[in-house]
Amino acid sequence: MTQPDMPRPPKLRDDCFALPAGVDWTPVDEALALLNAAIDCVVGVEQVSHANVVGRILAQPVTARRSNPPAPNSAVDGYGFAHEATGEGDQLLPLTDGRAAAGAAYGGSVPQGSAIRILTGAILPEGVDTVVLEEDCNVTATHVAFRGPLRPRANTRKAGEDVVKGAEVFAKGHMLRAQDAGLLAALGVDEVQVFKPLRVGVLSTGDELVTPDIEAPADRTYDANRPMLLQVAKAWGCEAVDLGHIRDDRDALAAGLDDAAQRCDIILTSGGASAGDEDHVSALLREQGNLQAWRIALKPGRPLALAMWQGVPVLGLPGNPVAAFVCAVMFARPACLKLAGAAWQDPQGFLVPAAFEKRKKPGRREYLRARMGPSGVEVFASEGSGRISGLSWSEGLVELPDGEAVIAQGDLVRYIPYRSFGL
Question: Which of 28, 9, 20 is nearest to 399 (CA)?
């Protein structure tokens, strides 16, 4: 029999992700909006060569230094002439001496009714506005014959038909890619103003953690989160700062965060974000770090702390590797983009048929490790957030909405490939 002054046990819920009675959990969209509103660009600006721009974010718009192409030119190897001098049926034109080639423009003009040998990329000489493909010609030393009619300006490119001089090519905040480097070069843009790389600090916490360079007893856990998150930060084009591992000690953690705030623009911690006796991250951020959100209504990743420490954003990620990864791509990714000078970015997802079945309870958003298969998107066999092998198996995430859902084979679900997270 229970004593009158003794605590009564709660009803059995058998669901560690269910929302506790009387506790308001922060929906994912609300938590993302809080984070978005709390941060802005924090990095300086530098100038880099067009040959070193991949992954860099523009600090100012880029305009075309010249048109592409800069002058009308031939799109093929063939023979150029004035279209007005040709018509339907068999055409026979005398050849002008010389030729026009890329990088070796023809200096004279081509008389009306004559043709000139012209190569791909050559600027059209004066008197030429149309080119006939050489495979469509019969040629002697003095004449070229082909069958008309050809359309005006056939096989030619107009000046600036790709980009016109002075046009804005890229906006501020654009993250440059390899193909963008080619366009910058084609437009004569040698250097651009970009934001300096964001410094992302990664800190692991927990007495149980060890590094994989030692033989560990069964009561110790190899630290998977820190190397994973450091590589994620590098993949995002950030400067990854390894802040090491701190044991479950409140003073040591506070000192570590103080140091990190001087060295980093954003801090990612893993572990200690829940509500246990040794979860010092959430407790310390609640006491001293202006905690904005803590219990987020998502699975995996419920204990996610969003806070500021000495003016530096801190994302207290869960300790389970899958939950840490999901929270990193969903929260740290857009935060890092905005802090680094780009726009806040929601991941692009695609509606695809489900190759699985699932019944989902209401109250939280869920992310399943997934990859595309022959009959639709498949999900990993286990939803356990400690099953890190599922991250390597997967190529993206299936996002299930906040409300109740029953997924049957063939139903459309939202699939977010990892490339939408910059990975």
Answer: 28
